[in-house]
Design a protein that fits this description.
With 298 residues, this protein is mainly beta. The chain has 4 helices and 16 strands. Its cofactor is Fe(2+).
């Protein structure tokens, strides 16, 4: 079973949408734009008459989240106030898998489940507008969303199911001469970054929040067990509006050779730092996309 097959049945169908086969695209968001490749569904689709329409119960908590996002996110170039961040975080902290049509009993979240080939991330979008978007990322065990940034964005992440390791950086607030390292053998410049997070998260953890220039704006998700994370992005990525996604790899502080690291080097104050090198869009950034058919927002 592939990850897409496992995830494709996660979200409860609503009404006529149940008559359509799950379709997905391969997506990589980066400086090259959004890459899409249609995948043909080899299984015959059920005819509408073969499927009994089912109504998905409304999720009051999801609707509360949606309405609060409309109040909190004022548009590009703005950052939510501390009080708004607290209000939105409280709602997200109380979010349960069932609020978006998920359950820990689903096959995808079985830690013993085997995903064929390289583990690949799947995502689905609940809502996307000019000011914010709501989406869910499904990561099989060992799947990775590589280090990437969120230019001009405030992002709330709430882990709904499973466990994952999150590593996050912010650009170091030091003189520019100290923040730029030597170029590597490929001529790429290294930039100093401060490690903000390097730990395991579970659904019991509070919502994590990152800001345009703080809070760990450059982060990496690495699944320990199959997991689902709900992301609120305000505003969403937009290449046309200068909010394109860049990818990075980290290398040891005080070195200019290539190579990944698990822990950055500490300075005399105990803060951890590492060099970040911007890279081309990595293969791991490509995701399978499925249609969201869970509880709706209005």
């Amino acid at each position: 079973m592939t990850a897409v097959e496992a995830v494709g049945g996660l979200l409860e169908p609503a009404g006529e949408a149940a008559a359509s086969p799950v379709r997905h695209v391969n997506t990589g968001v980066g400086k090259g734009g959004i890459l899409k490749k249609r995948c043909r569904n080899t299984k015959a689709a059920k005819k509408p008459c073969d499927v009994k329409p089912r109504t998905v119960p409304e999720s009051l908590q999801l609707q509360r989240l949606f309405m609060m996002c409309h109040q909190v996110f004022k548009g590009p170039g703005t950052v939510p106030s501390d009080s708004d961040v607290e209000r939105l975080s409280r709602i997200l902290d109380d979010m349960m898998p069932e609020d978006v049509g998920l359950s820990s009993n689903l096959q995808f979240f079985n830690p013993k489940g085997v995903v064929e080939g390289n583990p690949r991330v799947t995502n689905t979008t609940i809502y996307k507008g000019n000011n914010f978007s709501l989406c869910i990322f499904f990561l099989p065990s060992a799947a990775v969303i590589p280090l990437h940034n969120h230019p001009g964005m405030t992002v709330f992440s709430k882990l709904l199911l499973g466990s994952m390791h999150i590593k996050a950086y912010d650009w170091a607030d030091v003189p520019s001469s100290a923040a730029i390292g030597d170029s590597n053998q490929d001529g790429c410049t290294l930039r100093l970054a401060k490690l903000k997070a390097n730990k395991t998260f579970t659904p019991q953890c509070n919502t994590s929040v990152l800001y345009p220039t703080s809070g760990g704006n450059i982060h990496e998700f690495r699944a320990i067990t199959p997991c689902a994370v709900l992301d609120v992005l305000g505003p969403p990525y937009s290449k046309d509006d200068g909010r394109d996604c860049s990818y990075y790899r980290d290398i040891p502080y005080g070195a200019s050779s290539s190579g990944d690291v698990n822990v950055a080097e500490a300075d005399e104050d105990g803060d951890l730092y590492g060099w970040l090198e911007e890279i081309e869009i990595p293969d791991e950034s490509k995701m399978d996309v499925i249609q969201y058919l869970g509880p709706r927002v209005v």
